[in-house]
Write a structure and sequence with these properties.
Layout: H1 4-14, H2 19-26, H3 30-47
Protein name: RNA polymerase sigma-70 region 4 domain-containing protein
Organism: Weissella minor
Length: about 60
């Protein structure tokens, strides 16, 4: 089973690769890689969209 959104974010933020290295490593073209990057951010944001925390720490 493939998890392209997870692989994109993991490669970028945990392994420290550049966006170009991520798309090359995963075997995607530049345009498909850009689409996956954008979709990865949307998936990440959607996962936390139901959490509302408006506390202010001083």
């Amino acid at each position: 089973m493939s998890f392209p959104y997870r692989d994109v974010l993991e490669s970028r933020y945990f392994k420290g690769l550049s966006w170009m290295q991520v798309t090359e490593r995963l075997g995607y073209s530049t345009s498909r890689g850009h689409q996956l990057i954008n979709d990865s951010f949307l998936q990440f944001a959607e996962a936390f969209s139901d959490i509302y925390d408006y506390r202010v720490f001083k």
